[in-house]
Amino acid sequence: MKKPGDKTFSPEVLAAYLDGNATPQESNDIIRSLVDDYELREIMRISQAVDMELSLTSDVEYLPMTALAANCEKENYCCLECEKYILTRLGFGFDEKQLLQDAIKNGWQKKEGTALHNIGRHLEKCGLVVNRRFKCTTEDIVKALGEGCQLIVAVDGGELIGDPVEELKEDVLFGQIPDHTVVVLTCDAENDRITLFDPDSPHIEDVYPISRFADAWADSKNYLVTISTKDMNEYIPNPIDISDVELSEDLNELREAIAENAHEIWAENRMAEGWTYGPVRNDELKQNPDLIPYSMLPESEKEYDRQMAIKTIKLLIKLGYDLIKREETELYQVLKKRIQDSEESFFCRQCGNPIYKHQVFCDRCGLELKMDWK
């Protein structure tokens, strides 16, 4: 970690910054240091280049679903504060201590903040309908508000409020940082005004030009969480767009194995629930014609499992994960050699567990390390 008076940063902190997972203080320290520290700028450029080389799909626009919204004076509770605000607006009673306990128990609230995909979990628990979407527009915001929805968006907090240090980002920022959440109250496109509840602001409401809001919102790939009490009959599926993800031959080969295993898991669960094979589906007798080995399934059923497998692999890549085949690939051999040659000691930034260089996940706490190295 960075020591007081020392301009060096650990690889873990630099990697977290590039991934949008650094704390607000770490992000500000790095940005300020980048202005005068040529060596640090070079490290960041090299790290970004390494990311591009390691990526199997460099043209993919990655989505920051695991980025942590944490930019709040109230101990990184900005998401929790937004949800409490909405519960209050809708007339729901709640116990603040219980909400926090539930958030920590369920893993929604980490010490470092809340991952974007966990925004709205308390609202779900209250029976509200929560939808999460990337790549939205201000038109989507206007439409959702017109339908009576409550809205939470993820933004770059410093960019939203106009922190002077944000001006440096045009030249030196290599990662986008959706580190804060706010509630959208009104959006007046005609007058270029958007009204927000910001849990980190001393004001009840804050009004910004839509253009400034849009710049800050873009850092989360326009992540929008809508909350409503609508009838589920109006549900319209909106899966993440993975059309820009192309798989290598190795990953395409995984399709059949994953599809077959998915069928085995489904069949095992159905049998555990008392279902048996039957020539036609009969819910009363709990009989299903698909309770047969994968090899005997009709092609139409196999294709369903294959599509689920392929789309799952593509989604992992879309969310920024690299899948590397062991032993047989040159990349794996290079990483293995680097690990073997390393004489340095490294530790998980979350739990302090010893880890090896280039390790992806901590084997004690499960933290995704996503380290970048020269």
Summarize the structure in words.
- The chain is α+β, with helices and mostly antiparallel strands and 374 residues long.
- It has 3 domains: 1-60 and 324-374, no CATH class; 68-234, Cathepsin B, Chain A; 249-318, Globin-like, CATH 1.10.490.
- The chain contains 13 helices and 12 strands.
- The protein has helices at 11-19, 24-36, 38-54, 78-89, 96-105, 121-125, 138-146, 157-161, 169-172, 210-218, 249-272, 299-318, 330-341; strands at 68-69, 114-115, 129-133, 150-155, 180-188, 193-197, 206-208, 224-228, 276-277, 287-288, 346-347, 354-355.
- Strands 3-8-4-5-6-7 form a 6-stranded antiparallel sheet.
- A hairpin with a 4-residue loop joins strand 5 (180-188) and strand 6.
- Helix 11 (249-272) crosses helix 12.
- The protein starts with 10 loop residues before the first helix and ends in a 19-residue tail after the last strand.
- The model is unreliable at 1-6 and 164-175 (pLDDT under 50).
